[in-house]
């Protein structure tokens, strides 16, 4: 069960090699979390992530999970919940894709959409049902400011995140009053492996800063978290710009 500050004792990470997810896991293990499940494709990177968290004192187990195989989600995640209650599910998997390349190769664009949206819908619903059955828990969904308004430079990724964001908000409304808390996290540009070599956007942040914001959001039982917080105002302005003006912006 969660402690008096709303922090989890047990954590399930969907996307077990995500830098943001691992920064969050490290932060939570330093506070209260004692058991961590890392779900992802079996790989040396997943094993290394598990060892790192074990070195911090957590009991860590891994489970094979593939966002692109929704038919396996029920069984894979069912194994985790069968072992005991999960206080927090962190849905952190996703791919950025290559906009210019993916426009020319539609199947690559479909893969981005299937990973970021379709896979998340499946895993999110399976997790939500399990949390509701146990009567408590939080589902934290890593969205993106890119989903607030699709830009020419990354509209494939942005549209997938827009769908994910809308889904997570609706799921949170559906679960209101059940004891299950859904929190949507909208980071801006995050300095990570995924964005290595890309030109930084204004208000760039780090996995550690996102982890800090997630912890604070859990303590407050927030429904939406922006990282950094100033992006709430920036995106509100951009969202309401006339389309012709927005199209000409260097964003």
TrEMBL record:
Domain of life: Bacteria
PANTHER family: 5-KETO-D-GLUCONATE 5-REDUCTASE (PTHR43669), DECAPRENYLPHOSPHORYL-2-KETO-BETA-D-ERYTHRO-PENTOSE REDUCTASE (PTHR43669:SF6)
A Pfam family hit: adh_short
Keyword Protein biosynthesis on entry: no
Record's protein name: Decaprenylphospho-beta-D-erythro-pentofuranosid-2 -ulose 2-reductase
Keywords: Oxidoreductase
Protein family according to the UniProt entry: Belongs to the short-chain dehydrogenases/reductases (SDR) family.
């Amino acid at each position: 069960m969660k402690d008096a500050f709303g922090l989890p004792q047990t954590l399930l990470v969907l996307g077990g090699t995500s830098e943001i997810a691992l920064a969050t896991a490290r932060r939570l293990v330093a506070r209260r979390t004692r058991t961590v499940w890392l779900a992802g494709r079996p790989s040396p990177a997943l094993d290394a992530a598990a060892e790192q968290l074990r070195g911090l004192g957590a009991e860590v187990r891994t489970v094979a999970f593939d966002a692109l195989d929704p038919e396996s989600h029920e069984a894979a995640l069912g194994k985790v919940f069968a072992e005991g209650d999960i206080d927090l599910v962190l849905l952190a998997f996703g791919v950025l894709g290559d906009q210019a390349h993916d426009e020319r190769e539609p199947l690559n664009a479909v893969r981005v959409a299937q990973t970021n949206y379709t896979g998340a819908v499946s895993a999110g619903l399976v997790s939500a049902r399990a949390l509701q059955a146990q009567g408590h828990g939080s589902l934290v969904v890593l969205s993106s400011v890119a989903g607030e308004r699709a830009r020419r430079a990354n509209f494939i990724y942005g549209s997938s995140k827009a769908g994910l964001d809308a889904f997570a908000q609706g799921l949170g409304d559906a679960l209101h009053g059940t004891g299950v808390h859904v929190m949507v996290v909208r980071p801006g540009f995050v300095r990570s492996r995924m964005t290595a070599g890309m030109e930084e956007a204004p208000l760039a942040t780090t996995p550690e800063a996102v982890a800090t914001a997630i912890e604070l959001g859990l303590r407050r039982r927030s429904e939406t978290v922006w990282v950094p917080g100033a992006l709430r105002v920036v995106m509100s302005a951009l969202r309401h710009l006339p389309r012709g003006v927005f199209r000409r912006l260097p964003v």
